[in-house]
Amino acid sequence: xxxxxxxxxxxxxxxxxxxxxxxxxxxxxxxxxxxxxxxxxxxxxxxxxxxxxxxxxxxxxxxxxxxxxxxxxxxxxxxxxxxxxxxxxxxxxxxxxxxxxxxxxxxxx
Length: 109
Description:
Blueprint: E1 6-9, E2 19-23, E3 27-33, E4 44-51, E5 56-63, E6 67-73, E7 81-92, E8 97-107
Parallel strand pairs: 1-3, 2-8
Antiparallel strand pairs: 3-6, 4-7, 5-6, 7-8
């Protein structure tokens, strides 16, 4: 049985952000694993905000203290593809705020 979402692993600062792909007409669910950015006993906690000027990002939910699940919709219709840098602002149980970038490549065909 396959999962209903696509997994992404957050990268540490200084490393290239993870990259995922979808088509403009797709409505896809992704799950961002934040474990590489968390210290011992630190958990994803509270509201998650997102900066995405073009793509529609909804259903932002922390899961099991280590993940953020979200849905992505939209994209270009007049060019073959476009890369969008989407930044998630994630609160933790240690009162830290993590800025987690993800590149989402959207194909219009």
